[in-house]
Amino acid sequence: MKKLINAPENVVKEALAGMAIAHADLIDVHFDPDYIVRKGAPHNKVGVISGGGSGHEPMHGGFVGYGMLDAACPGAVFTSPVPDQMLAATKAVNGGKGVLHIVKNYTGDVMNFEMAAELAAAEGIEVASVVTNDDVAVENSTWTAGRRGVGVTVLLEKIVGAAAEAGADLATCKAIAERVNAHGRSMGMALTPCTVPQAGKPGFELAEDEMEVGIGIHGEPGRRREKLAPARDIAEMLAGPILDDLPFQSGDAVLAFVNGMGGTPLIELYLMYNELARILKDRNITIARSLVGNYITSLEMAGVSFTLLRLDDEMIKLWDAPVHTPALRWGM
Amino acid sequence: MKKLINAPENVVKEALAGMAIAHADLIDVHFDPDYIVRKGAPHNKVGVISGGGSGHEPMHGGFVGYGMLDAACPGAVFTSPVPDQMLAATKAVNGGKGVLHIVKNYTGDVMNFEMAAELAAAEGIEVASVVTNDDVAVENSTWTAGRRGVGVTVLLEKIVGAAAEAGADLATCKAIAERVNAHGRSMGMALTPCTVPQAGKPGFELAEDEMEVGIGIHGEPGRRREKLAPARDIAEMLAGPILDDLPFQSGDAVLAFVNGMGGTPLIELYLMYNELARILKDRNITIARSLVGNYITSLEMAGVSFTLLRLDDEMIKLWDAPVHTPALRWGM
Amino acid sequence: MPITVEHVTHFLTAAAELIHAHRDELTSLDAAIGDADHGANLDRGFAAVIARLPTVADKDIGTVLKTTGMTIVSTVGGASGPLYGTAFVRAGMALADRHEMSAEDVVLALEAALDGIVARGKAQPGEKTMVDALVPALEALRAALAAGRSLGRAVQAAAAAAEAGAQATIPMLAMKGRASYLGERSIGHQDPGATSTAYLLRALAMTCSRNEEEA
Amino acid sequence: MPITVEHVTHFLTAAAELIHAHRDELTSLDAAIGDADHGANLDRGFAAVIARLPTVADKDIGTVLKTTGMTIVSTVGGASGPLYGTAFVRAGMALADRHEMSAEDVVLALEAALDGIVARGKAQPGEKTMVDALVPALEALRAALAAGRSLGRAVQAAAAAAEAGAQATIPMLAMKGRASYLGERSIGHQDPGATSTAYLLRALAMTCSRNEEEA
Ligand SMILES: Nc1ncnc2c1ncn2[C@@H]1O[C@H](COP(=O)(O)OP(=O)(O)O)[C@@H](O)[C@H]1O
Ligand SMILES: Nc1ncnc2c1ncn2[C@@H]1O[C@H](COP(=O)(O)OP(=O)(O)O)[C@@H](O)[C@H]1O
Ligand SMILES: [Mg+2]
Ligand SMILES: [Mg+2]
Ligand SMILES: [Mg+2]
Ligand SMILES: [Mg+2]
């Protein structure tokens, strides 16, 4: 295992300590329970919090700040946080207008957030939850744990964060969040595995000419293993199921999000974006907004995911609204 | 070789095509000769251009836009661009107030920029050049090609870009650029090698327990190979030579830049930042500004570099000034 | 000899040791069909439980078990944290204020634990989860006691059934938790949560058997 | 038989083929002490030269060489682009308007090429660069001609000297270019630029020899 770390069990805390110093103007980091909270919390607005396992940086801690999240709760690497964290974060950001929990659809995340929400409710805080589940790699999910929440989570946090900042109430925030989730779809693939520090070895092994298609964001194997293919074929493999699932239609305006899994350089992401743009053009779908970079990652995994979000005017307005966080910033 | 590409010889052009679509609001991409130019060029100010081999993304193309570069010239992967590119870019951004060339100190870059500057001068354009050479890994460089230009280049492009945007003349821009270069020092290390697409195999090989210390940004081996070490020891190995070289002194205020080599996830960069912050605190050096992320990379190489820049008030003001490029954005 | 708080403490200590010893195995199982954290998760949780035990050593069995559950909820995370946490909390609620417990109480506690896991996780038997170890364990326990076996023997039978149940998850298609995302590829691997449940039952069997040997 | 434009074209074609055939070798040499692009750089440049040749086929030798140099400058990049580009441009300037060239002209052209490389790159012999192949090549050429050898034989001697010069870079400590950043670690590897220079000389020797065989 080759990593820039000291001891595997201290990775999360030490990285949080670094974040706290690097972004002291934007965030405070609270330890035991661990959470990252926006400077000056609570604010006079709906509080928006998220959380999940660590190893997906910049998500979620990198999205805490003006116009996005009020707090983020980082668990151990790939392990959903515990209710104590979400409870403490919920209390810290509750400005009296209620708190929205943004949860990715994984059994652990859902259960831990649920327990926190119950505890917060017991303390008289109004909590609403939205669960993202945009990963089309998981088919026929009716009888299982359902689809995973992946790339859409990033877009949703920005959009609902802007709504909350603009004064939307809790019910409205929840409705917007659900609309974003309902109109977004994602799929990802990996060229290489990644290594959970405490596990010490990669989650799976791939030959030089193999890739995993339909992966999530936890270093797990994907839906299937395939021979390595050119970028344009990989782009088809990911975009096809996404487009067919919603389905996206000729004339749609979308936000096209090409996301790196952590170890893929920007030059490859822009190349993949070029392939995606070509596919969308062929289908007469307009790219109204785009995002290219490593935003929801699996440690050092090499790979890419596509997320498409069908936009409406309100979503565009909220996407364009000012945001100031460690990882996303514009308009201020 | 595992990469998200089609054919090795088309990587640069296809990535540029993707950038052009993704950032159509900020930049235009010109092909043959290849250069990325700020929308609406030329502007009524000193033109600031840079360039170098591809594979270092987001540098330089990701820094084209308001308050930073007016154009960037991308060569083949790790190959400095040709004079035709810099000549065309220089003409495209020349608003009549002259053009500053920001060149990293590599024989190829220096010679190709020199030839372009001669050609531009022959066409009556006033050109000034600054050569960055901040890499302290290269010692006793008097009789050799000198020190490499690395991390300071990013900071310099931001700072001098702000000065040009604010109306500074060519001589002033050059003087500021030289001051930044003179007060910045860097050093880097690699956990893994990287593969030039056209070469098809890694530049060097490293055992599971080895690292290269004192690398540049071209996938080349470093000054020495060492046993893998904990983050805190690696931080000392990099920060020590940097601090001693300028030398930085108790009471200095610095910009601390922790840069990933492309394949290192943010969680490790923040952890390394935490180590650097500790070292600086011990020496009574204040971190006035910081930057953490993958900004000047070597394809998918895993590793990190530190850059420290001793700040003065003018540099801080220029650093804080609004910037709007694909990779760096604030204040607007 | 009835089961006392000391026995419960002994059980939890044995459980922590077993989990710690099998940490890498649990993580490897989770790497195959999950995210490679199950061993580290439970090891962290049980270490926290052991650290907390002295603060409740003079309390009743219900309090010890509830504290165990709450500690697990607060330190494990992931799916197994709320599931095992709820299991222990429910078992503790079933034994509130009790300082001793009989064989029947052990059954009651395990039933409450299973109810808690199912209430939280909604898994049916056959969906490749910890439920597939706990359900046969409980059946074996009831059957052995009905057949007149001692508690020690009966819990040993339950532990054996849990282990068999864990192994029986190998050919199953996962329908719950993270492994379900793998679809068909989840087949052929043993479920990590069922495996850790089998270790917990083994720890319980060790405690109950020792109790009988001492008697 | 004097050297004509056709011979120069033949030389450039042979050079392009040799570089293409040894592309991976040049890249591997560059990977060891540089950035693994020398083979791809020159292959791209000479392919562009070959594509451009038809547009100057009816021109004088000076024009062909200058066009070659300018094409290399415009397509190669890196250190070798300006260096080889300047070499060819300077050689072309030395032979401006010439349609034929003698043995002495070949010496003149190579001297001009070397001057161009040194003017651009400021390398001294012994600093582990292409200069370490070109300098001995030129010395061997002059010596062979002075000893009364035919041009074909003399250029063959030059090519052999260039190859020996390239090999002699192995123990050298790099003082110029990217390899200098490696310090002591540059020792023990053959310089890629010196190696490509040896191939260019070999291509020239092939052309001059064939010319004599035809004569
Ligand atoms: N809905 C569920 N009901 C019962 N057990 C479950 C459920 N979902 C997951 N599990 C159990 O949890 C185990 C995984 O635990 P762990 O790895 O700690 O959490 P995570 O899956 O969040 O990483 C699985 O092996 C399975 O036995
Ligand atoms: N200053 C110089 N003078 C002469 N030759 C040089 C000089 N610098 C570099 N070279 C030659 O250039 C070669 C490298 O060329 P290439 O790999 O194409 O460019 P780069 O080093 O920019 O990647 C070296 O092997 C060396 O022979
Ligand atoms: Mg997990
Ligand atoms: Mg190069
Ligand atoms: Mg797990
Ligand atoms: Mg090279």
Automatic annotation (TrEMBL), chains A, B:
Xref: InterPro entries: DhaK_1, DhaK_dom, Dihydroxyacetone_Kinase
Pfam families in alphabetical order: Dak1
Any one of the GO BP annotations: glycerol catabolic process
Keyword terms, alphabetized: Glycerol metabolism, Kinase, Transferase
One example GO MF annotation: phosphoenolpyruvate-glycerone phosphotransferase activity
Keyword Transferase recorded: yes
All copies of domain DhaK, residue ranges: 7-330
Protein EC: 2.7.1.121
Coiled coil (UniProt feature): none
EC top class, as a word: transferase
Keyword Transferase: yes
Catalytic activity annotation: dihydroxyacetone + phosphoenolpyruvate = dihydroxyacetone phosphate + pyruvate
Gene Ontology cellular-component terms listed: cytosol
SUPFAM superfamilies associated with the record: DAK1/DegV-like
Pathway: Polyol metabolism; glycerol degradation
Subunit structure: Homodimer. The dihydroxyacetone kinase complex is composed of a homodimer of DhaM, a homodimer of DhaK and the subunit DhaL.
UniProt-recorded name of the protein: phosphoenolpyruvate--glycerone phosphotransferase
Organism in which the protein naturally occurs: Chloroflexus islandicus
From TrEMBL, chains C, D:
Xref: InterPro entries: DhaK_L_YcgS, DhaL_dom, DhaL_dom_sf, Dihydroxyacetone_Kinase
Start and end residues of each DhaL domain: 6-206
A cellular-component GO term for this protein: cytosol
SMART domains membership: Dak2
UniProt keyword list: Kinase, Transferase
Pfam families, per database record: Dak2
Signal peptide (from-to): none
A molecular function GO annotation: glycerone kinase activity
A biological-process GO annotation: glycerol catabolic process
Superkingdom assignment: Bacteria
Keyword Glycosyltransferase: no
NCBIfam families: dha_L_ycgS
Name of the protein described by the UniProt record: Dihydroxyacetone kinase
